[in-house]
Every structure is written in structure tokens, then in C-alpha cells.
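To: structure subgroup
Subject: Chain for Friday's discussion

All,

I'm putting the inputs and outputs inline so they're searchable in the archive.
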Amino acid sequence: MVSPNRYDESAMPKVLTNARPELLAPAGGPESLRAAVNNGADAVYLGVDRLNARRGAENFTLDSLRKATRFAHLRGVKVYLTANVVIRPSEMGEALSLVDEAWASGVDAIIVQDLGLARAVALELPEVRLHASTQINAHNTATISELDRLGFSRVTLARELSLPEIEEIVREAPVEVEIFVHGALCFCYSGQCLLSSAVGGRSANRGMCAQPCRLPYELLDEKGKHLETPGRYLLSPRDLAAVSLLPRIVSAGVSALKIEGRMKSPEYVAIVTGVYRAALDRALADPEGFEVTEAELDALAGAFNRGFTTGYLDGIRDHRLMGYDRPNNRGVPVGRVTDVVERAAIVAFEKAVETGDTLEFWTRRGRFGQKVGALTVDGNERPVAPVGSRASMRVDKSVSAGDRVFRVASAALENAARRTFVPEDAGRTVKTRVSVRALVGEPLEIAIGAGEHRGVACGPALEPARTKPLTAADITEHVGRLGGTPFVAEAWDIELGPDAGAGFSLLHRVRREAVEELERSMLAAYDRRTPSHPQPQATRGPGRTARCDMPDLVVWTTRLATAKACLAAGAHRAIVPAWALEHDAEVFSRVAVEFKHMVKNREVGCALAKARPGRALVVGNLGLVRPAAEAGADVWAHWGLNAVNPGTVAVLAEAGAGGVWLSSEVSGWEVATIVATSNVPTGIAILGRQELMVTEHCVLMSSGPCSQRCGTCTRRERWYALRDRKGYGFPVISDAEGRSHIFNAIPLDLTRALPEILEAGVAAVRLDFTVEHLQMAQSLTRQVREALESAIAGHPPVADALLEPATAGHFFRGVR
């Protein structure tokens, strides 16, 4: 499937530039970079050893980044740096410096999640090209327009969009649009997942996700009864493989197709990039006749797969999206055990297997993997067991007749992939036109051209040959020796005098100088860059609220009756999700309507119909903040917009937010810093179960057949729970759009930290009520109101938490 020097630019179809989407591949380290470039990537994305969403990858250093960009640029490949994490207040200077140095090192764009960092880059480094990370969770045109205002040139869409939805966005988008086409799928909307952060302090928004979604869970009803499900891995999606959809994706007009996998091996990158390069070229050349070959599907499956799905791109949000029975590499089925003789298994192979392959046996007692080792076929030891053969092999553990056998690593496939990037000079070359002028009495001139770039070098004037004159064959042989460079001579223009003479060493020297001039030409635009050493502009706020001031006590709940009861118990305001309100008339004084994070284009009109003068809204979708404010609504930005620094607060304020709820991932000292330097009021959650996930796939689908008529679904009227291996139950509810909301098993309780919170000067504190019944919510509201009044009066904080068990979240420890 993959072979050395496989990529041939001359095979590229002749299409309009804007009709040919960019193939964007991951580069977790130097070998993966070479693997991606040599197998046909148009661009790569990579990170350095800090402030990127794959901190567990090999990554690059700022010192090695320049070498990486030079390698890619000389081969016509762009390089994008990931700075796609949220930035803590103390890190903004470091982050801006990182962008500055990376840009000077030659990257073509910076991929950013944090809105505050994007604002700082736009102000201090306006020449830097910004790409919006999928972590920003852009899934409607309004959000893309807002990102355009912030200075982004490209937006990576959320994975939860269908191709018709993407096509609509592309038509209206003022910037380039990028989508994922292959690799792991997150269960939660990207940028909205706090599960790893809550259960282990490792934040996905900081590049440290521990992938708790790949662990087993059981589904319980509201009474705690276990519900039967198709498997235990209820939050583990299959892997995306959209290779079969390439003609439709091209037709949708997206600018870039992205392969996930910076944590994967270089061999994986080589295989997947090579398959998509070949398939995309065919889809561009002949979309009507396009088919994916069986060899390509086998190569993708052999590289890594959790089972494949075309996923949301194909409108799939049901069981076909999920891998309930297994969260890791499934491999490729290759046969079954037919008999066991002593410690040897007799396997009937449906696919050829080699001694260096790694197989996995699925037994009644579980699964185990091992290297094949020696193979015996028809009584003889063989390096390969052919298709249809029965072969004997030693097994490490007990197996039985009927057990299935899967190949999880193919030695042949990985070796072929490795030859594309090892040794370092293997792989992709750039074809050039070489011109040589060798006339007696004139300087020897060699020019080497690649596209719009040209390198020219001259030697001394040539004299008549004393013995043998130069021949065209001499020139093509010695000038054409371009080994050790990324270039290969494809075409020649030779002007040769009949008796011109020159030593071969002269040809070599002038050729070398011409190559150097060509490289200088190709890299000139990057080499002119120098660091500008910017400093982030300080945002100015109103200062801390006076200690005696009472912050607004706000209650979030999905039940209007609970909101009324809590207001009567001392809450100043309440927030109720729009999906929990049957009628707009139900909204009354002191209740804000919450617009959730997910508002697709088809839902925008309905959402904004609730925005009117005087109406209080809490808006979780970046694109809806500005139009809601312009409609006259009193807008607070939702905590799901990941405000963790003053710059992000400023962005949301500039969009029209009159207040900002901070992320639950901020620590106490960070809250104080943000409040002191923000220009609008801010608030934090202090009690209740925090939302950890919001998902397009409904968790309740695992409990039985689903009609996908979410608005009338009776199952979603009740709360459920996901119980993990330690026995903790995470409450789950699904909304009218069929999106599931998963909340922390352990509620937050910061009532003992009220003196610090008041000292920080927040304008509002929030209580989040989920599974609590009305009387409990009302009682807790009254107790928190009393605790606030007591703290304001200078009394010591309460000795005991109001809830048990409870967590202080990240208030004291922060996140990693």
C-alpha cells in the first residue's frame, strides 16, 4: 500500500486551486513529520513541548521547529503550530512569546483555542495567520463570523456536523473551513469536556486528557436499577473514516481535510496519509467514478481502528457511531481457531499472516495479544501463512476452537510505511527544471527552477577544452546529482558550445551554489521574519467589588418550579435552559433563559427569537452573544465559553456580554486576577454538580430502540446515571434535541471558601441544581444565602460543607 517515493506530484489532477482541498496530516514528532510529508500531505500540524492539546506526544522544541519548517517548506508543505489550549492568566505573556518565536521560525499559521490569546495575537502580532481550533466548538455560521472578527483566517468545525450542514456553512463563511476526515472521535463536543478534569485533574482543555470516556460504565435509571446495554463502553465512539465520502466532501467546498493522530505512530501517519492522498486525487479527477479500494480499506483498518464510522458527516448519531464492546484497536479479522494441540493453536486463516505480525485472540475468558512467531503450514515452518491455509502456532495463553483471531499489527504494512521516512533522505522530492549555459568565453551558468522559484549560480568564463570537450551527458550526470537535497531534475535546457571545457568539480560547485540559491528563494519569505518580542496589553477592569457588597446569588436548574422556590428562599436570580421551557410565556421576572453551547444553523432563529429588550439571557454559543445583545437582551456569557483569563472576558464583553460566567477550571487566585483586570462583572459556580459533557449522541440510545423523535421521547423526561468502575454515578439527562448532558458524580461545595470568594470580588455566585428535589434545592439556597450574609458580616466560615460528599473542584488546586 505504501512504498518509498510513492508520492508523485506529476500525478496530481489539473484542477482549479480553490477546488482542491488541502490534505492536513498530524506530525507528533520528527519521524511523523517526514511520514506525513513523504506520503503526500499538503500541510502538517504539530506542537511544541508546551501549550498544546497533545502534551503527551513527542512534540518539537522551538529549536527543532525551524528545522522542521525548513524541511516541509522546501517540499512545498505548510506547517501549522498548535497552541490549542486555554491560557491561564499567568501564561499569556509566555503564550504570546511562543507564537512570536514560532512565527519567526517559519510556521504558516497558529491553531488557537483560547479567545484571549487570539485577541492578544491580533493586537500585538497582526501579521500572524490564525486558525481556530475545533476546541472552540464552531458549528454555525454566526460563530464563524465572530471568529472572522477576531482575526481568524480558517476555522476547524466541530465534528458533530453533517455534510449538508457543512456545505451551508461553507457557502456563507467569510473564512476558510476545515473538517476532520479520519481518526478518533471525542464523545463530547470538543472544548466542552470536563470529565478528565473533574475526575483526575487532567484537563482536556490543557492537553492532558486521560480519556475516561474509553472506560466502562453502566447505565442506571432514576431508581438506581441497572439497564441492559449492548456493551460496557457507553462513551466510546468508533473512529471516523470518511474516505468513502471524499467526492461529497470536495463538493461541499471545504478548504482542508484533517487527519487526527498526533499521538499515533509515524507508521500510522504514513499509512493513513498515503491512503487519503491517493483517494483524494482520484476523487478530484473522477468524482463520479470514485471508489475506495479494498486494499485501501485494509490499510486503514490495519493502521489502527476502533471500528470505523462515517459518523456525523453522514448524519449518523445512533448505535452506528459507537463502539460499545471495545474502546481500543480492534485490528483486522484474520481467522478462527479450529483446534488446539498441546500449547499450539491450529488457525484457519482468512488473510495472509506473517511471523512478525501481532495477533489478538478473542477467547471466552477475555482477549490477549502476542507476536505470531513460528508458523507451521502443512508440516513445514513457513514465514507466511497464506490465505485459506491452516497453520499451527504457539500461543501464550489458553484458547479454544471457535475463538476469533485478529491482526492488530501487520509487520509488512508497517515496514513498508517505515521505508517512506527512514532513512531521513527517503521520500518526497520536488521536480525541477535545470538550465545550463556552457559557452567558451562566457561564465558557466546553472539555473535550477521549481515553480515560481529559481536559483542561479555562475562560475568562471570557460576556455576551450584541452582534451575532451563537455558533453550533454556529462552535464546531466554531474549537474543532475541532486542527492542529499529535496530536488530531482525533471527537465533540462542545455546550451553547450562545441569545444567548451570544464572540470567536473566546477560543475559540482556551481550546481551546489545554484541549489543553495533556489533554497534561499523558496525560504526567503520565512527567513525575513524576526521575533518582535511583544508584551500582552493589560486589560483594565473596575477593580474588586468592595468586601461588604453582596454578590448576586444565582440558581441554575432545569425546572421552573425549582427556580421559583429558590428565588423565594433568597436567590437573586435563576437560570433555566431554553430546552426545559415548554413555552416562552413561562419566563418571568428574575429568570434568565440559557442558550446552550450547541445551536446549529437550523436552531439559531428559534434561539434568537427569545432575545428581546429587557430579557435576561445566558448565552453559551459564541456566535449568538453579539446578535442577542444587539436585540437588546441583557446577556451574560456562559461558563462553557471557557473564560479563564481577562483577555477572553474582554472578547466576550466586546461581543456584547454584560457579564461573564468564568470556567469551572479556574482556581481561586485566578478568579481574583480576572476580576481585578476585567471590564465587566464576572461570576463563578460555588455549589452543585458541574456539567462535564454535552454530547450530540444521546446516551439513552444504549438502553433500547430509539425512534430519534427526541421532542416526544418519554425516556428523556427522567434522570439517569452512568456508574463508573469505582461506583460513582454521573447524572445524565437528554434535552429536546436529543443531546445528552452529563454531570459530575460529586457536587461542588465552596461554601467554606466564601471569604476568599468575596475577597476576590466576584459579582455573582451560582448554585447548579440537577437531581436535587425542589425542597432540597430550596433549603440549600437558603443556607448559602445565610452563609453569604454571615461572611459579609465578618463571621468565620462554616466549619462543615453543606454537601457530603463534596469537592472543591479546581478552586484550590487548579488544573494541569
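Points worth raising on Friday:
Confidence is low (pLDDT under 50) at residues 1-18, 543-548.
The CA atoms of residues 479 and 507 lie 6 Å apart.

D.
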